[in-house]
Amino acid sequence: MPTEDPFTRRTLLSVVGAAAGAGTLGGCVDQAGTDESGATDDDGDGDTDGGSAGDESGVEPDDDTDGGSTDDESGADDEATDPVLEPGTRIRFDGQTGGWVGLEPAAIDGEENPTLTLEAGETYEIGWTRGDGQAHNIELRDRNDEVVNDYRTNLTDAEDPGDQLLEFEASEELAYYVCEPHSGSMRGEIRIDGTEPSAEDSGHDVDSDSGTETGDAFRIDPGTTIAFDGQTAAWEGLEPSVIAGEENPTLALEAGETYRIGWEGGDGLYHNIELWDQDDEVVDDYRTDVTDEPGDDQFLEFEASEELAYYVCAPHAASMRGEILLE
């Protein structure tokens, strides 16, 4: 229970007088603890419970963060807009296979795969200076998952790499920062200040060169190679670009058409890929051998049929399992 301010109590007692009843005193306390807007001051410290007088929006003030500004006069939640990083900012990450973890500037500290909002035409530095001992690099890609202006570093498994930083100029071509071997999980978005979010970010149908996102499924064009990163927690989409970064995406295929599906990369554990029907039986012997070293033999060419229901890793069928829909 909040401690009552002795000074306030003495003042109230002098106002009501010794003859005032308990009910009268209670009414005065209520009135004194209420501001003009009707907000109550339960703790007697002069502040109402809705927030400090200097922050009418209820949003915590954000003092100058290193390298980022959060001008938010509207009082909107922080989630509604990402801070614009100041030109010249160094953007550093901890390279973890599960995702890029922000180190600096302070605006992204501790955030996983944070969206970076940059100013077009300005110069920044980006990279990773700490890792988990796995092989990583960093590269900047466009919406088609192509590297922009050769902005990429070499692969290294150093836990404290010194040369994994890129200086680059922000442009509207830039869409993602990515670790090439783990592009499913180590992928963050780049936005240019003043430009509209892409259809992909707005939740609309997204067209790519090999597929379309529609609702909860990804419509894949005939003849497409469907590639995943084999992670025990889930299949992580690599290509086509419409499924990049998605876990166990639902694939919408055209009956009677041919596709190619498989996995590369991996987390060093044993995986394979199989195509199952609704009874969890392998369809037409569409399966690969179990291995921890994927190669070309971990891809299957198959014809989409109504029998197909799932693509699965047999050793990890509970977590590495995605749905197949036929159109």
Secondary structure layout:
Elements: H1 6-16, H2 22-32, E1 68-69, E2 84-85, E3 90-96, E4 99-104, E5 116-118, E6 123-131, E7 139-141, E8 147-152, E9 165-169, E10 176-178, E11 187-192, H3 199-202, E12 206-207, E13 211-214, E14 217-220, E15 225-231, E16 234-239, E17 250-253, E18 258-264, E19 274-276, E20 282-287, E21 299-303, E22 310-312, E23 321-326
Parallel strand pairs: 3-6, 5-11, 14-17, 15-18, 17-23
Antiparallel strand pairs: 1-2, 3-4, 6-9, 7-8, 7-10, 10-11, 12-13, 13-14, 15-16, 18-21, 19-20, 19-22, 22-23
What does this structure look like?
The protein is mainly beta and 327 residues long. It has two domains: 118 residues, Cupredoxins -  blue copper proteins (Immunoglobulin-like); 121 residues, Sandwich (Immunoglobulin-like). It is built from three helices and 23 strands. The strands form five sheets. The chain has an eight-stranded mixed beta sheet, with no helix packed on it. A five-stranded mixed beta sheet has the order 5-11-10-7-8, with no helix packed on it. Strands 4-3-6-9 form a four-stranded mixed beta sheet, with no helix packed on it. Strand 10 and strand 11 form a beta hairpin. The protein is elongated.
